[in-house]
Amino acid sequence: MAWNEPGNNGKDRDPWGNNGKNQGPPDLDDLLRNLNRRLGGLFGGNRSGGSGMGKAGLSIALAVGVVVWVVSGFYTIKEAERGVVLRFGNYSHSVEPGLRWKPTFIDEVYPVDVESVRSLPASGFMLTQDENLVRVEMDVQYRVVDPQAYLFSVTNADESLSQATDSALRYVVGHSTMDDILTTGREKVRRETWDNLEKIIEPYHLGLQVVDVNFLPARPPEEVKDAFDDAISAQEDEQRFIREAEAYAREVEPKARGQAKRLEEEAEAYKSQIVLRAAGEVSRFNELLPQYQAAPKLTRDRIYLETMEKIYQQANKVLVDLPNGSNSMIYLPLDKLGQTPKAAKSADASNAVQNITPTSQTVVEGGNSAPVPLRGGDRFTGRN
C-alpha cells in the first residue's frame, strides 16, 4: 500500500517528513539568501537584511573570475615552435606560431621546437667481426618533424632514438673488421649505421628526422694503440704517395704527348723533305741524261768538278806551293783546322779572315807564309 493512499487513518506517512506540504522545486532566492548568510556578509551583507548587497558582491566575484579565466587563456608560440593542443587529455589540433588563446582547465598546450637541430652522442666499447675490442664514438644530429608523434607515439622519443642508435652502431661494428673501422672503412660504417638507424625507428613513428651521422675517430685498446697508430700513419703515407704519383702523372703525361706530337710532325716534315729532294734528284738526272748521251766524257768531268767544288766548300783546307830547297817555315792555322765548318765560319768572321765563304781556305805560295783567302767557287789550278 502506498504511503499517501486514503485510509491511513489521518496519519502522515511521508518518508521525507514534509508533513503533507507541497513538494515543489526549491526557491532560488532562498538558496541565494542561504548562501549569502553562510558567507557571513563578506560582500557587505548581514544576517538580517543584506540580500541585495550579497547578490551584487557575488556578481562582481563571478565577473572577476571570468576575466581572470579569459586572461589566463592567452599564450604565445615562438617562431621555431609548434603547439600541440590537448582537450580534456585527448589530442585536438596543432597551432602555428603567434599569439593564441585556449580555454583554461579545458585545453592544454605543449610547445615543441621543430627547427633546431639536436645532437645525440653514442659511444662505447664494441666487439668487431674479427673479435677485437674497439671504442667507437658517434654523434647523431636530428630534428622534430611531427610534434604530435614526437610527444605521444612513445614514452620518450629522445631515449628511444638513443637506444636505436646504440643498437644500429653495435650491429654495424659487429659486422666490420677493426682495420676498416680505424682506417679505410670509416665512411662505410657511417653510412650503414645511418641506414640501419632509419630502418629501426621507422615502425615507431617517433616524429624525428635524422639529419646527419658523424662517425668520430675510433680508438683501439691502450695495449695495442701504438701498433694501430703506426698502421694509420702508413695508410696516410700510402694515400699521400698515391696523390703525389697522380699529380706527377698529370704533369708528365701532357709533356710526353706534346713531345710525341712534335716528333710525329718532324718525321712528317723529314719525310716530305726527303721525298721532294728525291723527286728533285730524279728530275735533275732526267735532264742530265740527254747531255751525257751527247758528250759522256765532258759531262763526267763537269760533274766531277762540281762535286769537288761542293766538297771543298764544306771542309777546312790548306794549299801549299813551295819551291824546291826552300827553308821557309810554314804557318798552319791548326786552331781553325780543328773546328767544324760553322765554328770556323764564326771565328773567321770575328777575325776578318773569311769574308764570304763558309770555310777557311789558305794558300801558301813561294817562300811566304801569308794566308790568302779564296772565294767560294774558286779552284786551284797550279802554280802562279
Give structural notes.
The longest helix is centred in the last third of the chain and has 70 residues. By secondary structure, the protein is α+β, with helices and mostly antiparallel strands. The protein has 10 helices and 10 strands. The protein is elongated. α7 packs antiparallel against α8. Helices cover 47% and strands 18% of the residues. GO terms for molecular function: peptidase activity.
Give average pLDDT, whole number. 76
Distance between the termini: 190 Å
The Cα radius of gyration reads 60 Å
Biggest β-sheet: strands ordered side by side in the sheet: 3-2-5
- Uncertain spans: 45-49, 352-384
Name of the CATH homologous superfamily of the domain at 118-220: Band 7 domain
**Main CATH class of the domain at 118-220:** Alpha Beta
CATH topology of the domain at 118-220, which one? Tetrahydropterin Synthase, Chain A
Shape: elongated
Total count of helical runs of at least 4 residues: 10
CATH architecture of the domain at 118-220: 2-Layer Sandwich
Helix vs. strand class: alpha+beta
**Tell me about the biggest sheet?**
3 strands, antiparallel
β-strand number: 10
